[in-house]
Write a structure and sequence with these properties.
With about 140 residues, this protein is mostly helical. It has helices spanning about 10-35, 40-50, 60-65, 70-80, 105-115, 115-125, 130-144; strands at about 55, 85-90, 95-100. Helix 2 (about 40-50) packs across helix 5 and helix 3 packs across helix 4. GO terms for molecular function: DNA-binding transcription factor activity.
């Protein structure tokens, strides 16, 4: 049985991959800067942003952050010590603990979102139609 031959990506594909990498790097740098403005690490800020959407079990947080549950425990501990998050029993299963953002945590998460200049500023220069097209193309890439 013949093995399918892999073709090398064309120049345009490689250019797009490079641009995506640059966008990701700038986004991460901007995110780290916004987090530091609140005396948070990037990981703490990401976890807080997730919790601002609603309480989540520790295991689910670990899956979303692609890290070990023990790491999530440490991050939640630090957020909890600052009054930004809390642990509570899961209403569906009281044996399970969920982490939740406090009111202060939701406020900080909102400020973090508003502080992301790179993620927001270049998009302002695009028309609504261009932003919709970009969103749809990015979603297609993620769905592939």
């Amino acid at each position: 049985m013949a093995t399918p031959q892999k073709t090398r990506p064309d120049e345009l594909t490689m250019e797009v991959v490079g641009l995506i990498g640059e966008v990701v790097a700038r986004y991460h740098a901007d995110y780290e800067e916004a987090a530091a403005g609140h005396a948070l690490t990037g990981a703490q800020a990401k976890l807080l942003s997730l919790l601002s959407l609603g309480p989540l079990p520790m295991r689910k947080l670990a899956q979303k952050l692609k890290c070990e549950p023990s790491n999530v425990t440490g991050i939640v501990d630090r957020l909890e010590s600052r009054g930004l998050a809390e642990r509570r029993p899961d209403p569906a299963d009281r044996r399970v603990k969920v982490a939740a953002a406090t009111d202060e945590g939701r406020r900080v998460a909102r400020e973090l979102r508003h502080g992301l200049r790179f993620a927001r500023e270049p998009l302002v220069g695009l028309s609504e139609e261009e932003r919709l097209a970009l969103r749809d193309l990015l979603q297609r890439m993620l769905d592939a």
